[in-house]
Design a protein that fits this description.
single chain; 304 residues; alpha+beta; Ribosomal Protein S5, domain 2; 2 domains; binds adenosine-5'-triphosphate
Length: 304
């Protein structure tokens, strides 16, 4: 059967550990990070068509225009890269249904890029081997290989070198997006200003990896670590207040997700997460989500 339409679902990520070193000569910061894929997803649907078209649907709570629909969309770049790699002509009608907060430190764009690689590989009948998919993903962005892999993984290099790690938990998170995003480069620039003597080698993730292997939520709460939290909170002091509020309301721990401004709160159970999400919902945070992790990376959910 020839596939003419299919949908691939790709998850948001949070960084359970984000150790950042001093910038390398190529300008990238070396990272030691532990990613976890959590159950907040963008869905990307592709249909066979002679030309190339890309549309984006946003939920009501996202401001219009935050996601580019033309060549600046990472999906457009992913399609061009895959087509060029195989020497085929890019074709198809693509629709992205966003649910991952944009510019929120949850790698929503990277999720869409990974979904596009998986979907178009299948639509175009390319059968790209996994190692080539990961290499193409790394060319698109540091977080894109993890969006393919999913689960819980250690990321090194600039985050693009990923390997799965032992994770014995099912963890519950409350996710609080901000109405206005923070640009990842600006948070890294502020990190450089605040920490001009940052070590070349990022802080290792040993304590965090032990907590995951034990499956103990309190140990995980203690071990969560984000070197970008201080610059993100310095740029947006209200994030610090939100974290204090979440912890006072019973979260085991609150932390900025990646470069922020989304904050995530570790909870002891699904019920705990739902109750905390209700507590944190207010006019400044009208959308508060509960999500579990780890979940699968970009995967096919339907085809015809
Ligand atoms: P990261 O943590 O990987 O830096 P992020 O979660 O902070 O990413 P994204 O949601 O990936 O940020 O978006 C960053 C910027 O990329 C947006 O401001 C937007 O203009 C642009 N962009 C391009 N394509 C997409 C896409 N498909 N979805 C979301 N943003 C996109």
């Amino acid at each position: 059967m020839v596939t003419t339409e299919l949908t691939v679902r790709a998850p948001a990520k949070i960084n359970l550990h984000l150790g950042v070193g001093a910038p390398r000569p190529d300008g990238f910061h070396p990272l030691v990070t532990v990613y976890q894929a959590v159950g907040l997803y963008d869905d990307l649907t592709v249909r066979a068509a002679p030309g190339w078209a890309l549309g984006v649907d946003l939920p009501d709570w996202m401001p219009a225009g935050v996601v580019p629909t033309g060549g600046a969309n990472i999906v457009d770049r992913a399609a061009a890269l895959l087509a060029e790699h195989h020497g085929v002509v890019r074709s198809g009608e693509v629709h992205v249904a966003k649910a991952i907060p944009v510019a929120g430190g949850m790698a929503g764009g990277s999720a869409d890029a990974a979904a596009a690689l998986v979907a178009l590989d299948r639509l175009w009948g390319l059968h790209t081997p996994d190692d080539e998919m990961l290499a193409l993903a790394a060319q698109l962005g540091s977080d894109v290989p993890f969006a393919l892999l999913g689960g819980t993984a250690l990321g090194t290099g600039r985050g693009e070198l990923v390997e799965p790690v032992t994770d014995r938990g099912t963890w519950w998170w409350v996710v609080v997006p901000a109405e206005t995003g923070l640009s990842t480069p600006s948070v890294y620039r502020h990190f450089d200003e605040m920490f001009p003597d940052a070590p070349a080698e990022p802080v290792p993730a040993d304590a965090l990896l032990r907590a995951l292997a034990e499956g103990d939520p309190w140990a995980l709460a203690d071990a969560l670590h984000n070197d970008l939290e201080a610059p993100a909170v310095d740029l947006r002091p209200e994030l610090g207040e939100l974290i204090e509020r979440g912890e006072a309301a019973g979260a085991l721990r609150g932390i900025v997700s990646g470069s922020g401004p989304t904050c995530v709160f570790l909870c002891g159970s699904a019920d705990h997460a739902r109750a905390l999400a209700a507590d944190l919902t207010d006019p400044a945070h009208p959308v508060v989500l509960a999500a579990n992790g780890p979940v699968a990376g970009a995967h096919l959910v339907s085809y015809a």
